[in-house]
Amino acid sequence: MAIDKYLRERFFPHMWCAGCGHGTVLNALVRAIETMGMSRNEIVMVSGIGCSSRITGYVDVHTLHTLHGRALAFATGVKLSKPELNVIVPMGDGDALAIGGNHFIHAARRNIAITALVMNNRIYGMTGGQYSPLSGCEVLAATAPYTTIDPSFDVVALSVAAGATFVARCTTYHVKEMIDILRQAILHEGFSVVEILSPCPTYFGRSNKLGDAAEMLRGFKEDTVPVGSAAKQKNPELIERGIFVQKEKPEYCAAYEKIMQKARSAAGETI
Amino acid sequence: MLKSFCIKREWCKGCGICVAFCPTEVLALDAQGKATAVRLEACIACEQCALRCPDLAITMQIAERED
Amino acid sequence: MPSNEPELVRFIQGNEACVEGALYAGLEFFAGYPITPSSEIMEHLARRLPRRGGKFIQMEDEIASMCAIIGASLTGRKVLTATSGPGFSLMQEALGYAVMAEIPCVIVNVQRGGPSTGLPTQISQGDVNQARWGTHGDHAIIALTASNHQDVFAMTVEAFNMAESYRTPVVLLFDEVVGHMRERMVLPQPGRIALVERLRTSVPEGVDYHPYLPREDGRLPMSDFGGVHRYNVTGLYHDMWGFPSDNPKVVHGLIRHLVDKIENNVDAIARYKSYYLDDARTVLVSYGATARSALHVVESQRRKGQKFGLLELQTLWPFPYDIVGEACGRAKQVLVVEMNLGHICAEVKKALNNPRNVFLINRIDGVFISPTDIRQALRLIDGRGV
Q1: Between chain C and chain B, are at least 3 CB pairs below 8 A?
Q2: Domains of chain C
Q3: Tell me, what's the pLDDT at C386?
Q4: Which of C75, C109, C121, C353 counts the most CB atoms within 10 A of its CB?
Q5: pLDDT tens across A116-161, in order?
């Protein structure tokens, strides 16, 4: 099987719970990389802390498992230092948008060519099911025994506003769509964000009585529609999937190249 | 056309996603709660089970693609 | 002089001397966030680095700055960040990451008064213990300092060399007075000071490479991200391939390695200057800008025939207990001059058998300690009143 070479098979079976969507993201991600025929030596995966962040351990590329919330800051150092590398940053929703929220918007603002994945399971799984910035209102969680009163971010709107030049959303039910979106996100020359709705049957599903993993995936099927669909106008509660933004803007490392040229000519130096 | 189909039992955690969404009811959970193919002859090689498997336990080869 | 070419004499701030040292050492990547009194370091590097193909980035905060230099170091670059107290506090978690993952990097802290926002434009040496113990968990750290611009330059080069030799973060603890004061500095010719370059593995492609297995000499050859060896880097306890492990043997072996590689090399890491110590009955111990006032007092006492000496520490961590014990062991009294409530004084007491003759002479009000301040304190200690 062609994807085997991208996996560190000695660490399988992996550490995620039965039915956890993060395994499906890993599955789709290695397939997306495989279709592009990229060398494993030119890919760096940088992650933070949380269930999602353990994904780096399973992929046979250069992997950097860092601090909670800081993956994009580490990744910025890797990418600016060696722009020829493909840098992919899988994050959880708390990792990316609570503790890492500032790094997220600033990486987007710079439009540095990094692929940011927000694996949105609406919960902190690793620490035992506390609510996250994407839990939304009126859900039950370990730290919300009387339901949450915190609204959630709209990751797509936030990313667009912050300056990301590729913004998409998909789910672990719609896997072929996810593989295609991940491929386009990785190829994009700029900061790309892919929000992936990923079920946590163990904590979010159980505390909110959403059924097993398959039931939760059925929910993704029923609650989402392709972007621009007429159904969304009839029912605003539906969540849109697909590519929302895909545009060209000067990429950060390319812009820095020009600064180096400017600096050299200003200094009248040849080196 | 399905050429080969394999479930790595030791990787499978028995979440039942493949069973729930197989359009031709090829798959079931066995007594140990692991996914198994009970009607492989009905498989239409749509690959949804392999692509969606969170445990990366299902591998299949399809005849059209000689890889 | 190995070269006949004239050496370049500059009249600059200490912060710029640090920049010159970093560039001399081969700095290739800087990430930082503006903060007084260190900002001149990043301002000069913003101008200088792009000219020589180096990378400069102003990050969204100090946390991100520290993380970015770690990422860049893993691609094979020599990296630096610079900050002051509040920013140094924000960097502590990632500093611990660099200790754990053994990432060469240099962090400058131009100290100001604290805690909190404190005294942004005035001197203090209050971060000495933070440099040692700021990040959580048992660990070892290297911290260097200097009292004049020539030494700022030299210690900055040393910091890069030690970061590479020991695969560790190195902290440069300067202070506001040294950082902002202007004085003469001679820029050495290239090649005059030896540089330690990144030790890269010779393991060929396809052969198992162990990024966390020390060689016999204790050094760990690295492989750049983007190279032929794909390994894992993590802040978790990890095995010799870099993969997480909570095996008690692995955990114990790693924490011992992280501490021992520094603590067992105290003598090799120790940098200090001795003034009139051979027959000194009163030994002053000082470091950074305060050592200038201390030296002034020692020299004026010598002119009066008093047997004063000065031990100027340039390596603060790992603390050179044996060197301090040797320098102060025969003294009638030991006076530690520093601008905090006794961070180094406590270590000097540990180094000596009779701590009752160790006295702290300090100022903690943001005003630079002067020779007069030290003389007044001496009168008090000697029971002669103010």
Answers
A1: no
A2: 8-187 (3.40.50.970), 272-381 (3.40.50.920)
A3: 63
A4: C109
A5: 999 999 999 999 999 999 999 999 999 999 999 999 999 999 999 9
- Give the DSSP H or E segment for A157: helix A155-162
A–C CB contacts, 8 A cutoff, strictly below: 133
Query: Does B14 touch chain A if contact means CB atoms closer than 8 Å?
Result: yes
For residue A201, the 8-state DSSP code is: I
Distance from CA of A47 to the nearest CA of C (A): 10
- Say how many CB pairs under 8 Å bridge A and B: 74
CATH architecture of B2-62: 2-Layer Sandwich (3.30)
- Is residue A262 less than 8 Å (CB to CB) from chain C? yes
Cα–Cα distance for residue pair A99/A103, rounded to 1 Å:
9
- CATH code for the structural domain at A2-267: 3.40.50.970
Taking residues C71-85, report their average pLDDT.
Answer: 98
What interface predicted TM-score (ipTM) does this complex get?
0.97
Mutate one of A5, A11, A12 to test the B interface: name it (highest B CB count within 10 A): A12
Interface membership of B39 toward A (CB under 8 Å): no
Domain regions of chain A by residue span? 2-267
B23: contact with A, CB 8 A cutoff: no
Beta-bridge partner residues of A225: A240
Domain ranges of chain B: 2-62
